[in-house]
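Technical appendix A lists one of the benchmark inputs used to test multi-chain prediction within the project. The record comprises two sequence entries:
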Amino acid sequence: MHRTQSRHVTVEAHRESVRQLLAPLRNPDRIERLPLLAALGRGLAADVVAPLDLPPFANSQMDGFAIRSADVPDGGTELGVVAPVPAGAAPAELAPGTAAPIMTGAMLPPGADAVVPIEQALPAVFPAPGVPATVRLPAVPARNFIRDAGSDIRAGELALAAGTHLGPGQLGLLAALGFTRVPVYRVLRILLATTGDEVVEPGSPLGPGKIYDSNATLLESSMRQAGLHVTRTGISTDRPEELAGLLRRHAADVDLIVTTGGVSKGAYEVVRQAMEGHHVDFFGVAMQPGGPQGIGTFDGVPVLGFPGNPVSCLVSFEMFLRPALGSLFGSPAPRPVVRARLAEALASPAGKHQVRRGTVLPDGTVRLEGGAGSHLVSALAHSNALIQVPEGIAALAEGAEVEVWML
Amino acid sequence: MHRTQSRHVTVEAHRESVRQLLAPLRNPDRIERLPLLAALGRGLAADVVAPLDLPPFANSQMDGFAIRSADVPDGGTELGVVAPVPAGAAPAELAPGTAAPIMTGAMLPPGADAVVPIEQALPAVFPAPGVPATVRLPAVPARNFIRDAGSDIRAGELALAAGTHLGPGQLGLLAALGFTRVPVYRVLRILLATTGDEVVEPGSPLGPGKIYDSNATLLESSMRQAGLHVTRTGISTDRPEELAGLLRRHAADVDLIVTTGGVSKGAYEVVRQAMEGHHVDFFGVAMQPGGPQGIGTFDGVPVLGFPGNPVSCLVSFEMFLRPALGSLFGSPAPRPVVRARLAEALASPAGKHQVRRGTVLPDGTVRLEGGAGSHLVSALAHSNALIQVPEGIAALAEGAEVEVWML
């Protein structure tokens, strides 16, 4: 069934439709347990509870002397120096009236409750081990320069929630907690089909009326960077039976089909035509660029039809597919969302959410790169951000604060 | 020669030292020409000049009718409809007094100078090809809905400068220009050595006084994400001869050695000791955390000695190694630098550049995650940004605007 509708949907509603299309892929069969490093960039598939305190034991924050703080009166005192506590050792109890040289990260000896940094000791050097020595130390409060057990996280607390994106910091925490493997969702396999009689592979001769296919490179690299596995059909001509054949050949082996082009209202719309008899809707999203969109299933496989211009493709990926995947699987990471001030005024179609390309500068302003045209791939290549101009806004003045997604 | 210095250097000066240490690696012998997709995340090793205009030819921005604008007087007129121009075709000259159906992206027929969108035509549909038809069109200015050849970039212009980071947008531009390969710098090979008698591999039993090694995971994943090739020595104990042996075994096969721990002023500083007889300086950078740093060469191989706490490691990588590599090789990409307002007040040691961890929120504020302690790996795992508090600032109020690097 081919349901062509003229409904006009918001960016948020279409993003939610994409999410619902892919939600069945979030199921326990698709969870695998990977070594930490192999899980880099994936999303956590289950809550992780801390099996131990971090730090696991009270330890010294400085190189210095471990003492019983009650041993040192105001004005300081001289203490006998006992055996040093290197990091990694399990020290004996600190005898009253003594001071133990202690290194940063080393376990506080039982009985000790404070550390005096070496710089505050007299002499401000560690005595040679085994040689009887004393040291003069100032009074310090209990807990001075101590990192308490569990002061970062306590055993039994939620360390990372299901759906967390696993970057270096998160994997570092899992390692600190002693984990070697982590449950993550399997990588999604995407079938990417670019279309158009005007489109030729880079490297081929460029005849009149032809352009090189940039959509495939733009989207495949975006998808790879997002941790997705991509298979390409190669460029399909505008003959619907050719496109349908290419899709059918690969559909059984993928989780999602993404097409570019052929979803608008022209006389030759190959994706619309190839999807006849399948459950795919085509309609306009109130967004510029990237308005024409298709969504549904082809032979039971989820399919998204992106428009044909390169900027529209990238914006479709960033506005719909990336956030939907991130919200379902914790991967890819969401784009950092920040606020910046427009370096120049802009106009926007009031009835649409406009996405402009720009460069965020270190002074907190954002400069537009190129105009609104969806074919401006050179301007895109010189941008580091997508500027979000919500529906209902027709103009913004220089200096206006806007929401910006960092690319 | 072991040169221990007590000099105190700024963040910027140490970053420049790291850059100079690695600058000899930017040489023509290390350039390779890769297929576009394989170059994702690398840095461009030479300027790329556009070999053709983009768009390559004047084309239509809309589905509509191509006309000679002078043919339509104010108030509009009826024109005879000729053969349609699909995208990808090389159309014949447009006869005076006619209108050619034209699809988005299709080449403008010679003679035509404007496009009237289909929505403005009467009737607002394309006639069946081959059937004689006329269409009533309004007057439009010359160049209406035309994308001029070269309006994105012109042949001969600089498309991408040497040193550009190659993300999806940049690779998309190269594809649009017809390139299939691109010159990039070879991936740097890093030897990563974590040290400490207190440190054990995740998955092993954790004895008293011991902690799991999170530095290796934190740094290896950071480096991998940055496109670097990482070899690990495994954890070295605090015996200098063990560490030196591990480094010597791998040094010939790597471009850079990175160690963690053992660079401070305690009694057991394994990296300092292992580097005796090599050209390595150890000193404090005016930064918190991550102050103690080592830099030099070991058996002629560049070496960086990061401090031993996990947050210090990550901050050292982000503040020194990542920017130095990005500036030399165009890879990794720099961290997005934005401005945000502090959600709460903070204090900072006035004589040091403080780097705090935080979460940038969509409202443009940034929330601190954990305190200043360099052992707070759980707080790090819940952060998405590094907050930069420059040297000379002792306190910042709630609402103060700060520079933030997005992780």
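The helical segments of chain A are 11-22, 168-176, 215-225, 240-251, 270-274, 310-329, 377-381. Residues 1-5 of chain A have pLDDT under 50 and may be disordered. Comparable benchmark entries are summarised in Table A2.
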